């Protein structure tokens, strides 16, 4: 019988798979890939009864003793609540499918087994992160996840670009983690514990002064922004596309990058008590959502376009969190995982079938890759927010929250939606319609890759309807995430879990209508401009615009190519020159400059060394006397 | 003096040292590896013997104490000494011919470490410290015909003598103020009364003298030169064992003799810790010689340990010893790879490590694991121990210092990745596999496994460390 | 009886002279000599404080300090001799092969 107490099995199974594959892999058939898939799949199968157990038992906290030292017991505590349960499912299902896909995509690679070992370790760490009810285990898993990301981006370590991208991703996210760790230690200092429930209780009782709390929350946010590729720590995510495509799908789209969103959701009571930090969440989220959707416009590499769209969608999730609508953020996280995994896998299928990934070199693939074309259309529709797809409904929940706060933010987010629809459909139209640029050389992917594609199509299209049907004992998925599972609120409060009754779940007509209009306008513009195979950065002279008979068509062209694309190009320049080169890389060079200066002290001369000893003692004396005043 | 039997471990170590020297005299020079094996196995046996005494306790008058702390450091000293000898076997065979007494000196160094961490009296501690230092002076300059080794030895002994004089002058002032050289007596005498200028001077001189031994900034300048010039196994001995013993001495001194002065020395220790972390980790970026890079990175590690001293208390002492143990396994693994490569090829520069993953996959993997551990990545020793160190410092309110430490960990990741990139990405300049001896392979495996084991399951080691530190704060 | 202040003062002066020598000299042997002066200051301190308090410890420590100092000088001279044989100099300004 599966109870919520057996949740520890979920990370344990893939971890076992990692151990087996990493140690015995070379003697196993398929280098151990089968073991990784079967054990992760077993976890996915276990997840359904676990969810059932959660419906029965309500949210639970478990604190088994790991070891005792002196009288102090160290717990490895884990929590099973609606928030964790849903994200566990997302991770398990995505990971299983993507591993199956990788069987085909990575076939014939050297270090095939190593790939599956690291993916299994990643899955285990991600599940551990989601289950953690202690900041210690959460941070450990957080770092392991980052390490796996590094190893996987740099999987093809004979490609210099991949190695540079891996290093950049690792170090950029670690910069964010500096903030996270210091934030954790601040919370520890203020409360004397690393247990999330205890910290949440302390916060709710007002045991931490406001300044410390705000500082700790903002520091924790740095970690979340780094991991989730939010401005200005987003620079690593597009480069991370140098990794194998299944990795991009699993880690840099569906799961790991959502860890930042999950972290803020897990610690949400802390952020509720620190309004300034919450405002930062919203602001950074919106900046990232808008900025990344502009940056996506000037990209021509299909994976990089998807990477920017990930930053943008994660920004929307943060915006939802920042405006206090946690269930909407997590619901969008779920649908996003489905359709973004689908899009990446479809992009992988295109790359696999054509060995090209520049949009300008593609076109007319609908005949040679029919399954990929259809499934990717479903994913694109969901990302664009075409009515009735999953992305449409989950984005509407976020829009609903924004409309509640400010009309301006609502309108801005609608514009982001329109841009998203534009570049997403441009990608699809450009790749699959228009003249065939491959002259029949493209081929459809094997069944092992198409299976997961088709499998992801279903949730991409249908997940949105969870809004309208009961989810276990809850009225719908939003109510489930808000904690309305028929269990007393006290049960939530006791374990520091999120409970918030009375969430408006059904979008109103205004939101539904404007959102649909934005998506369709963007998609229509893309179709109008690119259906005949126009190049991405083509500039149209005014006369040529007027020659076209359709005024709408011309207006679209002018708007998109002259206004939006130029704006986008400017932002891309700003992002590259100032945020990436001057900001992130510049800060990265600082230690080397300091080191170069300090190095000159080491003259090699013994007298200098002796003098340093004397000077050091004088300084120590000075500090003692100064601090003793 | 009824408790003379408490000195049995030290007497046995000393006996082993003389036995090793005698064996060196009796055996022909080409038999030197036998002397090495004798020393290594003898030290491991003695470490096992000390472990069987675990839980025994007793004091020899006011001079010397046998408690779990002392026993743990005896075991550490012996095991670390044995590891250094095993690392040296092939190195000495090729580069230090007829090096029997070299092994004897390492045993003496271990004896010095045992003495200085077991002493409860200033003079005894000082004698132990000098026994360690004298052995190291000779060992650093052991490559007689290598001018670099000469230069390293000269710098080390001259600066070491200066710092010893400084330390001793501080101790003499402390004796003048308290009228005793016994730790407990000093603590008692200092417990009451306001700090005098004499006390401040004594503390400054003691911190300066001991800061030199552990290579804290700005007393660190000897270290990179000595590491680079010394035979590489001796650099490992300096970086790991000597430093561990120095911290063992400091922990006992602060806990038993100077607890009342902690408010005075906390701020300067925090400043020294900050300077040490920043200098060690930033200057490491600019190094082209891997031995020097390791020297600066271990200066950075000293900075982390100093964070513990700055917020000193029972928890911090645990964290320091814990970090020392994990750091030892990790850093020895890194040094062993450097020794293997240098011994076979004579190469020390980072550029020469290009393509090591092709030439010696296991060595490259071990170096990567060690560097990831030093950078504090999880599932490896360095993460757990450093996390605990920072946790106790945060509890002591030193958040700003922890912030520097965490930032510098990221900086360190940068230069470690720089080396790892050489190992895996850059095409090798020289080709052909790089073999290692069975001993080296076994030792490297043990060290890597220890690094991972401490990272994955730190509990057993932590239990030992906590019970070892407890008597100091009884 | 000589006042304690005089002993401590003399010791401090000796120590300072030694320290000055360490910093100012360029010849390794002279630096060693200066260190000896510093160590003598230490021994004097221990003797003075011990005598003043009527405690034997000070004298014991002083004897140890003298012994250790002798051993140290022996060792250092040995290393300097080796250096001189290989480099034909004991000038510390010319010892800068290891730096940065």
Task: Give a quick precis of the structure.
Chain B is mainly alpha-helical and 474 residues long. In chain B, 77% of the residues lie in helices and 1% in strands.
Structure description:
The complex is a heterotrimer of chains A (629), B (474) and C (100). With 629 residues, chain A is an all-alpha fold. Chain A has 25 helices and 4 strands. In chain A, the strands form 2 sheets. Chain A has a two-stranded antiparallel ribbon with strand order 1-4. The longest helix of chain A is centred in the last third of the chain and has 49 residues, at 551-599. Chain A is globular and about 80 Å long. Mean pLDDT of chain A is 84; it is low at 538-550. Chain B is built from 19 helices and 2 strands. Chain B is mainly α and 474 residues long. The mean pLDDT of chain B is 91. Helix content of chain B is 77%, strand content 1%. A two-stranded antiparallel sheet of chain B has the order 1-2. Chain B folds into 2 domains: 1-257; 261-474, no CATH class. In chain B, α12 runs antiparallel to α13 (314-345), α13 (314-345) packs antiparallel against α15 and α13 (314-345) packs antiparallel against α16. Chain B has helices at residues 8-26, 32-52, 68-95, 100-118, 122-140, 147-178, 183-191, 197-213, 222-229, 232-257, 262-285, 290-310, 314-345, 356-359, 361-374, 381-395, 399-424, 438-456, 459-469, and strands at 58-60, 64-66. Chain C is mainly α and 100 residues long. Chain C has 3 helices and no strands. The longest helix of chain C has 31 residues, at 57-87. Chain C is elongated, with a radius of gyration of 17 Å. The N and C termini of chain C lie far apart (53 Å). The mean pLDDT of chain C is 89. Chains in contact: A-B, A-C, B-C. The interface between A and B is large, with 58 and 68 residues.
Summarize the SSE layout with pairings.
The complex is a heterotrimer of chains A (629), B (474) and C (100).
Chain A: H1 9-24, H2 33-57, E1 60-62, E2 65-69, E3 72-75, E4 78-80, H3 82-105, H4 112-131, H5 135-153, H6 160-191, H7 196-204, H8 210-227, H9 236-239, H10 245-254, H11 259-266, H12 268-272, H13 275-296, H14 302-322, H15 326-354, H16 370-384, H17 390-405, H18 407-432, H19 447-462, H20 477-482, H21 489-494, H22 509-530, H23 542-547, H24 551-599, H25 606-628
Antiparallel strand pairs in A: 1-4, 2-3
Helix pairs in contact in A: 1-2, 1-4, 2-3, 2-4, 3-4, 3-10, 3-15, 3-19, 4-5, 5-6, 6-8, 8-11, 8-13, 10-14, 10-15, 13-14, 13-18, 13-24, 14-15, 14-17, 14-18, 15-16, 15-17, 15-19, 16-18, 16-19, 17-18, 17-22, 18-22
Chain B: H1 8-26, H2 32-52, E1 58-60, E2 64-66, H3 68-95, H4 100-118, H5 122-140, H6 147-178, H7 183-191, H8 197-213, H9 222-229, H10 232-257, H11 262-285, H12 290-310, H13 314-345, H14 356-359, H15 361-374, H16 381-395, H17 399-424, H18 438-456, H19 459-469
Antiparallel strand pairs in B: 1-2
Helix pairs in contact in B: 1-2, 1-4, 2-3, 2-4, 3-4, 3-10, 3-13, 3-19, 4-5, 4-10, 5-6, 5-10, 6-7, 6-8, 6-9, 9-10, 9-12, 10-12, 10-13, 11-12, 11-17, 12-13, 12-16, 12-17, 13-15, 13-16, 13-18, 13-19, 15-17, 15-18, 16-17, 16-18
Chain C: H1 4-24, H2 28-53, H3 57-87
């Amino acid at each position: 019988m599966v109870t919520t107490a057996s949740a520890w099995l979920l990370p344990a199974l893939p971890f076992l798979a990692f151990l087996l594959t990493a140690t015995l892999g070379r003697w196993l058939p398929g280098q151990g890939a089968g073991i990784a898939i079967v054990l992760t799949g077993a976890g996915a199968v276990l997840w359904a009864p676990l969810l059932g157990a959660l419906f029965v038992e309500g949210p639970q906290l478990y604190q088994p003793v790991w070891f005792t030292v002196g009288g102090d017991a160290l717990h490895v505590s884990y929590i099973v609540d609606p928030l964790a349960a849903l994200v566990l499912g997302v991770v398990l299902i995505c990971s299983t499918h993507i591993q199956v896909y990788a069987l085909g995509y990575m076939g014939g690679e050297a270090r095939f087994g190593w790939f599956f070992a690291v993916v299994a370790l990643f899955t285990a760490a991600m599940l551990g992160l989601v289950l953690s009810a202690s900041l210690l285990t959460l941070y450990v898993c957080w770092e392991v996840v980052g390490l796996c990301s590094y190893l996987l981006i740099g999987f093809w370590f004979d490609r210099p670009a991949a190695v540079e991208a891996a290093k950049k991703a690792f170090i950029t996210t670690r910069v964010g983690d500096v903030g996270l760790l210091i934030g954790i230690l601040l919370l520890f200092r203020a409360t004397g514990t690393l247990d999330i429930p205890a910290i949440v209780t302390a916060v709710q009782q007002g045991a931490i002064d406001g300044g410390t709390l705000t500082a700790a929350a903002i520091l924790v946010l740095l970690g979340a922004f780094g991991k989730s590729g939010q401005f200005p720590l987003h620079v690593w995510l597009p480069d991370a596309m140098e990794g194998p495509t299944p990795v991009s799908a699993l880690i840099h789209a569906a799961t790991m990058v959502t860890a930042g969103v999950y972290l803020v959701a897990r610690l949400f009571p802390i952020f509720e008590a620190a309004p300034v930090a919450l405002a930062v969440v919203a602001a950074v989220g919106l900046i990232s959502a808008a900025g990344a959707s502009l940056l996506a416009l000037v990209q021509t590499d299909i994976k990089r376009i998807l990477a920017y769209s990930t930053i943008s969608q994660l920004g929307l999730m943060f915006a939802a969190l920042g405006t206090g609508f946690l269930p909407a953020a997590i619901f969008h996280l779920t649908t996003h995982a489905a359709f973004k995994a689908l899009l990446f896998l479809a992009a992988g299928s295109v790359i696999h079938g054509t060995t090209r990934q520049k949009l300008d070199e593609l076109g007319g693939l609908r005949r040679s890759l029919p399954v990929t074309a259809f499934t990717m259309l479903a994913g694109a529709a969901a990302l664009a927010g075409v009515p009735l797809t999953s992305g449409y409904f989950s984005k509407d929940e976020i829009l609903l929250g924004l409309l509640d706060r400010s009309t301006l933010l609502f309108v801005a987010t609608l514009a982001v939606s329109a841009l998203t629809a534009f570049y997403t459909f441009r990608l699809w139209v450009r790749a699959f319609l228009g003249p065939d640029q491959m002259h029949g050389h493209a081929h459809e992917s094997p069944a092992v890759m198409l299976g997961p594609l088709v499998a992801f199509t279903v949730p991409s299209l249908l997940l949105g309807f969870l809004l309208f049907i009961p989810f276990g004992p809850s009225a719908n998925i939003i109510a489930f995430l808000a904690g309305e599972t028929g269990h007393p609120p006290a049960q939530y409060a006791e374990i520091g879990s999120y409970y918030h009754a009375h969430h408006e779940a059904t979008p109103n007509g205004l939101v539904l209508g404007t959102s649909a209009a934005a998506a369709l306008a963007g998609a229509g513009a893309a179709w109008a401009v690119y259906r005949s195979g126009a190049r991405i950065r083509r500039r149209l002279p005014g006369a040529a615009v007027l020659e076209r008979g359709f005024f709408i068509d011309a207006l679209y062209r002018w708007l998109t190519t002259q206004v939006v694309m130029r704006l986008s190009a400017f932002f891309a320049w700003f992002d590259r020159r100032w945020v990436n080169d001057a900001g992130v890389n510049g800060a990265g060079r600082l230690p080397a400059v300091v080191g170069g200066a300090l190095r000159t002290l080491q003259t090699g001369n013994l007298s200098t060394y002796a003098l340093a000893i004397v000077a050091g003692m004088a300084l120590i004396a000075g500090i003692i006397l100064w601090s003793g005043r | 003096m009824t408790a003379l039997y408490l000195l049995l471990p030290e007497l046995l170590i000393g006996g082993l040292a003389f036995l090793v020297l005698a064996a060196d005299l009796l055996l022909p020079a080409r038999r030197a590896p036998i002397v090495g094996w004798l020393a290594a196995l003898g030290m491991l046996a003695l470490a096992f013997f000390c472990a069987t005494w675990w839980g025994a306790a007793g004091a020899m008058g006011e001079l010397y104490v046998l408690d779990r702390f002392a026993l743990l450091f005896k075991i550490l000293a012996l095991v670390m000494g044995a590891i250094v000898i095993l690392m040296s076997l092939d190195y000495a065979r090729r580069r230090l011919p007829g090096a029997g007494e070299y092994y004897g000196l390492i045993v003496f160094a271990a004896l010095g470490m045992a003495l200085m961490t077991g002493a409860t009296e200033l003079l005894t501690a000082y004698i132990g410290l000098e026994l360690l230092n004298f052995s190291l002076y000779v060992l650093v300059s052991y490559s007689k015909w290598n001018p670099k080794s000469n230069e390293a030895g000269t710098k080390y002994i001259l600066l070491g003598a200066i710092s010893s004089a400084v330390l001793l002058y501080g101790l003499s002032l402390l004796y003048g103020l308290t009228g005793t050289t016994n730790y407990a007596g000093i603590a008692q005498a200092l417990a009451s009364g306001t700090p005098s200028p004499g006390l401040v001077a004594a503390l400054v001189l003691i911190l300066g003298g001991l800061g030199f031994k552990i290579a804290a900034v700005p007393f660190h300048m000897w270290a990179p030169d000595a590491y680079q010039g010394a035979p590489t196994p001796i650099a490992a001995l300096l970086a790991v064992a000597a430093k561990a013993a120095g911290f063992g001495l400091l922990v006992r001194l602060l806990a038993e003799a100077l607890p009342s002065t902690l408010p005075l020395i906390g701020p300067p220790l925090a400043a020294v810790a900050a300077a040490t972390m920043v200098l060690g980790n930033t200057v490491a970026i600019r190094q082209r010689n891997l031995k020097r890079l390791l020297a600066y990175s271990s200066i950075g590690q000293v900075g982390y340990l100093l964070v513990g001293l700055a917020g000193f208390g029972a928890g911090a002492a645990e964290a320091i010893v814990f970090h020392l143990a994990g750091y030892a396994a990790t850093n020895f693994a890194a040094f062993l790879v450097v020794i293997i490569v240098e011994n076979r090829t004579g190469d020390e520069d980072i550029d020469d490590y290009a393509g090591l993953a092709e030439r010696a996959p296991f060595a490259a993997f071990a170096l990567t694991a060690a560097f990831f551990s030093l950078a504090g990545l999880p599932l490896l020793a360095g993460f757990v121990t450093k996390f605990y160190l920072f946790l106790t410092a945060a509890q002591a309110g030193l958040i700003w210092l922890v912030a520097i430490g965490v930032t510098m960990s990221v900086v360190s990741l940068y230069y470690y990745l720089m080396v790892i990139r050489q190992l895996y990405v850059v095409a090798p300049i020289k080709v052909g596999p790089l073999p290692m001896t069975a001993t080296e392979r076994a030792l490297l495996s043990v060290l890597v496994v220890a690094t991972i084991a401490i990272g994955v399951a730190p509990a057993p080691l932590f239990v030992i460390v906590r019970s070892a530190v407890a008597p100091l704060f009884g | 009886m000589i006042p304690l202040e005089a002993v401590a003062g003399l010791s401090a002066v000796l120590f300072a002279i030694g320290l000055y020598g360490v910093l100012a000299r360029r010849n390794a042997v002279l630096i060693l000599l200066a260190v000896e002066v510093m160590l003598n200051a230490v021994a004097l301190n221990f003797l003075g404080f011990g005598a003043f308090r009527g405690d034997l410890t000070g004298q014991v420590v002083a004897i140890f300090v003298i012994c250790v100092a002798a051993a140290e000088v022996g060792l250092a001279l040995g290393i300097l001799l080796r250096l001189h044989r290989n480099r034909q100099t004991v000038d510390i300004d010319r010892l800068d092969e290891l730096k940065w």
